[in-house]
Amino acid sequence: MNPDNQHRRSIRSYVRREGRITPAQQAALISHLGNFGVNFSNEILDLEKLFGRYAPTILDIGCGTGDTTIELAKAHPENNYLAVEVHRPGIGNLLKEIVKHGLFNIRVINHDIFEVIEYQVQTNCLEQILILFPDPWPKKRHHKRRLITPPFLDLLITRLRQNARLFIATDWQDYADQILDVCDSDNRLTNLAGKGHAAPRPYWRKHTRFEQRGLRLKHEVWDFVYALK
C-alpha cells in the first residue's frame, strides 16, 4: 500500500455521529439494501454489470438523505447514479425513496469515499462527480479533515473522463476559498466560471437539508463547476 495513501486515510473527513434511525429508514435498510446496495471490496466495480446496462455514470459523494440523487435520477433515467454515504439514516432514506419512485438507476455504497474511489472506481469512467455541501469542519484545528484537498483531487481526477464535470457547493466562505484555491491551482481542470470565480447555481441542484439550514443562518452559498481538460 502506498504510504501516502495510508497517511491520507488516517485522517478521516467524517465521524460516525449519525442520529436515530427512524423505523421507516431501518425497514428500508433491511428490505432494500440487498437490491440497491454495493458492498465495499478491494475489487474494481464492473459498472455495466452493476447497473445492468452501459450508461453515463455520476458519482454523488456524501449524498446525505439522497434528495438530490433522487431528483437527478428521476429527471435523467438515461444516467446511472452511484451514491456514497457513511451515515446509515441517510442511506435508509435514500433506499426508501428509490423504491417509492420505482427507480433502477441508483446504487448505494455505505463506506469511506477515499477507499471507494481508490479501490472500487476504475479510471476514466465517470461523467460527473457531485460534492454538495461536504462537512465544512469550521474549527481551524479540524481543517485537516476537510475533503477538498490536493491529494483527494488527485484521486478524483483520475476517475473522470475527458471533459467530465466536477460540481462542488458549500455555504462556508473560508471553505469556498480553499476549494477555489485547490481546484484553480490544478492545471488539469478548467473553472467554467473563470479562474477565481464561483459559478451560478446549477438549475438542477435541489436545496439540500444542509443548505436549507445554512440559508436559515444567513449563510451565502458558493457553487463551483470544473471540467477535466
Can you offer a commentary on this structure?
The protein is α/β, with parallel strands linked by helices and 229 residues long. The protein has a single domain (32-228), classed as Rossmann fold. 38% of the residues lie in helices and 18% in strands. The protein is built from 9 helices and 7 strands, in the order αααβαβαβαβαβαβαβ. It has helices at residues 3-10, 23-36, 47-51, 67-75, 88-100, 113-120, 150-159, 173-184, 209-216; strands spanning 57-61, 80-84, 106-109, 126-132, 160-170, 189-191, 222-228. Strands 3-2-1-4-5-7-6 form a 7-stranded mixed beta sheet, with helices on both faces. It is globular. It starts with a helix and ends with a strand.
Descriptive key words:
229 residues; alpha/beta; Rossmann fold; seven-stranded mixed sheet
Helix-strand sequence: HHHEHEHEHEHEHEHE
Class by alpha and beta content: alpha/beta
Gross morphology is globular
Strand content: 15-25%
Strand order in the largest sheet:
3-2-1-4-5-7-6
- In the CATH hierarchy, what is the architecture at level 2? 3-Layer(aba) Sandwich
Unreliable runs: 1-8
What is the radius of gyration computed over CA atoms, rounded to a whole number of angstroms?
Answer: 17 Å
- Counting H and I runs of at least 4 residues, what is the number of helices? 9
Helix coverage percent of residues? 25-40%
What is the CATH class name?
Alpha Beta
CATH topology category name:
Rossmann fold
* Count of separate structural domains: 1
Mean pLDDT, nearest integer? Answer: 91
Task: Write out the CATH superfamily name.
Answer: Vaccinia Virus protein VP39
Number of strands: 7
Largest sheet, if any? 7 strands, mixed
Cα distance, first to last residue? 29 Å
